[in-house]
Amino acid sequence: MSDSPLRERLMALRDQLHHHSYQYYVLDAPLIPDAEYDRLFNELLAIETTHPDWLAPDSPSQRVGAAPLPSFSQVRHETPMLSLDNVFSEQELLDFDRRVKSRLDDGFTLNYACEPKLDGIAVSLLYVDGVLVRGATRGDGQIGEDITQNVKTISSIPLRLRGSDWPDDLEVRGEIYMPRAGFERINAVARESDAKVFVNPRNAAAGSLRQLDSRITAKRPLEMSCYGIAQQDGDALFTSHSEGLQRLREWGFLVSPELQVVDSIEGCVSYYHALLQRRDSLAYDIDGIVFKVDSLALQAQLGFVSRAPRWAIAHKFPAQEEITVLRDVEFQVGRTGAVTPVAKLEPVFVGGVTVSNASLHNFDEIERLGVMIGDAVVVRRAGDVIPKVVQVVLERRPDTASAIIAPKYCPVCDSPLERAPGEAVLRCSGGLVCGAQRKEAIKHFASRKAMDIDGLGDKLVEQFVDAGLIETVADLYLLTVEKIANLERMGQKSADNLIAALEKSRATTLQRFLYSLGIREVGEATALNLARHFGGLPELMAAPEEQLIEVEDVGPIVASHIHAFFASEFNRVVVRQLSERGVHWPSAQKLDGEQPLAGQTWVLTGNLETMTRSDAKEKLQALGAKVASSVSAKTDCVAAGTSAGSKLAKAEALGVKVIDEQGLLAVFASTGSSI
Ligand SMILES: NC(=O)c1ccc[n+]([C@@H]2O[C@H](COP(=O)([O-])OP(=O)(O)OC[C@H]3O[C@@H](n4cnc5c(N)ncnc54)[C@H](O)[C@@H]3O)[C@@H](O)[C@H]2O)c1
Ligand SMILES: [Zn+2]
């Protein structure tokens, strides 16, 4: 390459890096992942190293951070706040060690302090006479932002120092960060309320800290870990960096418990590997390790270059966020029928593994991200959580990008998908017909509070389904000892027991049976209410939604789930087969015997003296009656208190039986029900 295209590249890199620094440092709105920024930065460094004459004072390589936001008051740092040089390989780390040694006068003892490199934002705290007087961001290294009110809200920052041996003026430096759990929590809340979702914990920490209203900062889960003291002229309180950190601990600061001092670069290498191993299990994000020459005298010999000290180096970990291309979106059906969009990615190495699938949560998330097929996206894999698409790199969207279309039918069973109003999740309406939901449906059917089939655990259900012995819950009642005795881990005795348990489970109650069908949002309590209300299955299956809503605790959503379940031909067949294969329960008549008012519809109106309307309603329901809110020809009885109005009139017009409060009390008394 001739000089001029290379110089053009250099200029383009400078422009890009300036732009991305501004987005990252000033606006807290990075457009690309750090790994991409680092690649561009290193490319710039490489060009500037081979062409030192092209170096310019305003090159990103010569600068720290970016200018502070004008909305904050400015703070001038007495001692500049610098950045750190990075290395990405062991070889480069060894080179650093050689450079350090070559610059030191003979006869030195070289120890390194090793610390995690927390991924947050650099902050300076100023204490005068032991009292916190100022907090500031790094800004461009010379001038930062005054965030005193905000740092005061962070509980790990002492407002007053402990002990008494601190210097009159003390400037402490450290990193304010957001632990991962707190980050997940505030993002979950933000998603619910359609507020700003942060890309990563570092971005969340920066956005939370640089608030003009400190009450917002106070609500954010921030911490500060301290890693240094700005050097003051003359006063030598201690001789090493690690000793200084020890003092900071005594004065009440949080200093990383991972701090270690080693006596060789080999020690640094082992420290790096040990912490990299534990990276996922730490409570916060770290993006590498910082190694510092421990002796303050040796640090002074080494000094600084424009943007970083010569006595420290950051050894970066593999990136937890990378840029890749979204090739396609696939839809997976989970065990509850929830359909999740899964991003199919150009394979990319991120968070220590090669990732080719990532979660997109649901359609709300797809809309929030504004992501399209073909987009360049940022994938994040941190901790042990599944990789996620967290951002679209809009500036790299190709012309060919295409919208992600929500499927209308289940990719597994072809049943229509539905999305309840206000819900982000698409669901397969197939119920038992859906292969994806089948195993879970059968496990639920067999469980203790459902059909209570003793011995039919999750493993066995999977085995039966995988062996093709059963497809639906009704098939369970076609199993025989001969069919199952030869299965792996089964044997004659277990087979006998299981068939006996199946036989026993045939006699059940309507409530259990309804619960066991696994209709969405029909738990035990709702199943009981349904059984009481309708008395029999045919009545329930025939009930329109308006009638279902009359059942206690059944709202429009549950009613629509129940209705949809029984509207499915497949489900109706399974229910019929279950009945044909011997599943039964006491009939409504029998229930009538237990519940004196079963099958009756009552209406309450007017004011009652001796009880509240809701007490009366509960009592009637306990006796088996359905309590409706309006009178019709089907109403069996109206209990009218004083000042009853239109309902009473209607009852009289229709010739429906009417009783007063005394009459109602008499009914309760005669049924042995007390109030
Ligand atoms: N995505 C983007 O668009 C974009 C833009 C600009 C910068 N960046 C990222 O920002 C980083 C560069 O920023 P930088 O100049 O702050 O440098 P840096 O983060 O690489 O290193 C210096 C910083 O490390 C921090 N640090 C954490 N633990 C420390 C410890 N124990 N001792 C000393 N310092 C510690 C301090 O805040 C210090 O200022 C890179 O990772 C880069 O990718 C990204
Ligand atoms: Zn399905």
Automatic annotation (TrEMBL):
Q: Does the keyword Ligase apply?
A: yes
Q: Name one GO molecular function term.
A: DNA ligase (NAD+) activity
Per the UniProt entry, the Enzyme Commission number(s) are 6.5.1.2
A Pfam family of the record is HHH_5
Cofactors named for this entry: Mg(2+); Mn(2+)
This enzyme catalyses: NAD(+) + (deoxyribonucleotide)n-3'-hydroxyl + 5'-phospho-(deoxyribonucleotide)m = (deoxyribonucleotide)n+m + AMP + beta-nicotinamide D-nucleotide
Catalytic residue list: K117
Q: Which residues bind Zn(2+)?
A: C410, C413, C434
Q: Which UniProt keywords apply?
A: DNA damage, DNA repair, DNA replication, Ligase, Magnesium, Manganese, Metal-binding, NAD, Zinc
Q: Per its UniProt record, what PROSITE patterns does this chain match? A: BRCT, DNA_LIGASE_N1, DNA_LIGASE_N2
Q: Tell me the InterPro entries matching this sequence.
A: BRCT_dom, BRCT_dom_sf, DisA/LigA_HHH, DNA_ligase, DNA_ligase_AS, DNA_ligase_CS, DNAligase_adenylation, DNAligase_N
PANTHER family, per the entry: CHROMOSOME TRANSMISSION FIDELITY FACTOR 18, DNA LIGASE
Family recorded in the similarity comment = Belongs to the NAD-dependent DNA ligase family. LigA subfamily.
Q: Which HAMAP family match?
A: DNA_ligase_A
User: What does the record give as the function of this protein?
Assistant: DNA ligase that catalyzes the formation of phosphodiester linkages between 5'-phosphoryl and 3'-hydroxyl groups in double-stranded DNA using NAD as a coenzyme and as the energy source for the reaction. It is essential for DNA replication and repair of damaged DNA.
Protein name according to UniProt: DNA ligase
Protein species of origin: Zhongshania arctica
- Organism phylogeny: Bacteria, Pseudomonadati, Pseudomonadota, Gammaproteobacteria, Cellvibrionales
Chain's gene name: ligA
